[in-house]
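pinned: reference chain
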Amino acid sequence: MQYVGYFFIFLGTLSFLISSVGLVRMPDVYTRMHVGTKSTTMGTILVILGTICIEPTWAWKLILLAIFILLTNPLSSSVIARAVHKDGATLKLDAFKEVEK
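pinned: its structure tokens
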């Protein structure tokens, strides 16, 4: 069971690595926000699952932590998006303009 836990932790850290590369490569704040919240949420949940597999006595605390993360990450990303939108940020690549042409 420990090897399954280590595999989940490896997948979670791989998700963090992909997220960090995406934060650097994305063109505007909205896509960076998407990469920053979705990938890190998945990575955190995978690390928590791996930790539960390795140390099952911590399961209830880690499940509560996972629920808290699943509830707060979407909320924080929408608050960031609203603040950025009010600040006047625009998309660098607007898919709707390409459709209208």
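why pinned: Residues 12 and 46 are 5 Å apart (CA to CA). The chain has one domain: 2-100.
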